[in-house]
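Action item from last week, closing it out:
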Amino acid sequence: MISKKTQNSPLHNFLLTLGVEVKNTQIFDEVFTHRSYLNEHKSVAHNHNERLEFLGDAVLELVVTEHLYKTYPNPEGELTNWRSAIVKGEMISQVSRQLNLGSFLKMSKGEEQSGGKERNLILANLFEALIGGIYLDEGYAKASQFIHTYLIPKLKKIIEEGTYIDSKSRFQELIQNKIGFTPRYELIDQDGPDHNRMFTIGVYIEEKCVGKGQGPSKQKAEQAAAADALTYYL
């Protein structure tokens, strides 16, 4: 049973605006607790949200897969590409940000001061944890309803604009069709310790740098550089 104090809490009221009717408050306390918060608050009784994120990731993939299977007669390969595009971290972090989930996330002061509440990975994980929490508290149908309300509508644009094709492939195809040239990628900079390295990559058309991107791996930095270049050429 939920106490009157909990019913009037900002988090409880916020979740109601999203269509989430909380039954077990501890589940949602976990949803909105980052691992770093527990390092500063040893007496907190509940866990952080990583296990719920693990669960939510599986529920999210099943709901999207079911929707694609029932809605589109396309071949398996296309459905797989569409699913990958809509459940990727970049997309679900965008939805998490639009819903303002990060404002309710509890984390350490250091993590928050370093921009943790705006970090794509953390926001994507939070979105998945919330799905996991809804699934545990209200069941599959409610979790599916939440995903259909806030994420599935973005699928139409993904398909129409072809954004399910990765940025490097899209940019290479575009440039080859336009000028018959294959873009090349060069490392501009790398920074940070080995366990937290950040790479900066430039993509070049002949000698001109037409896009730059950063990422924790060269592959991700190249994708970011291609995405940056696409904004110029599209």
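Closing note: Residues 50-71 form the longest helix (22 residues).
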